[in-house]
Amino acid sequence: MTAALLLASALAFLAGLNLLIRFGLRAPCVLETASLAQHGLAGREVRLPTVRGRKLLGWLLPGDADKPAPGVIVLHGWGANLEMMLPLARPIQAAGLTVLLIDARNHGGSDGDTFSSMPRFAEDLDAAVAWLKTQPEVTPEKIALVGHSVGAAAVLLSASRRDDLAGVISLAAFAHPETMMRRWLAGKGIPYIPLGWYVLRYVQYAIGHRFAVIAPINTIARVKCPVLLMHGSEDSTVPVGDAHAIHARRPGDWISLRVLPGEHDAGDELEQHSGELIAFLNQAFASTDKGTPA
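-> structure tokens emitted (294 positions)
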């Protein structure tokens, strides 16, 4: 076999491997099962623009029918959708805050794209912030972000690049993408050397971001607004140690950690503690009047 043929075979193998990696890591798309009206919610379904000419599905739930209110953007995790975040959205709306639930690209009713990634979740958040500021239901200078899992890492990434947010709630964020992916590879029985190492290098190349730059353990140091980190003590998907590691890198006392009983998708536990989330949001919105972190 000639050197040229060997090279061609190697390139063909890598191309096939790369396609397999993309297929294996694609986000499952779970559609919503009911409408706003069927859920008995006051609000409107919206389609808002994001990058690359795509549109996101959103549900806008006004906090006050008569005047603008502070706005809270809620983002789901990997393979989830906006409907799954209703247990959090309902009490926030009931507290008088306007809520925008969104589906990230390739999720729920939003447009598809070439791939999903945590940085693309953050891009969709940025697009949602820009859109929400123009809506009559919202006080534009009072916007906060809430995200779960990959969405939790995304809200921290988005907040690390902006100075116009009132606050952030990060629910069950992983500390570092590489650590998270290595746990996932181990769970699939994929050896790190040589295959796992290559998967991680290829993913960094494909998403266009180095893991160290987008890792919550590092982005947290650049967040200037109040942050509430919440994590389940029995989380088997993202160990609670990740939350402690993120909190340890906080730049100031405006970033707090609350560990609750429960697993990774601990909707019931979070709903029971919705009063804490709302208290944090109200304090964060109040701090915007003073111009300092809460």
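The beta strands are 44-49, 55-61, 69-75, 98-102, 138-148, 167-171, 227-232, 255-260.
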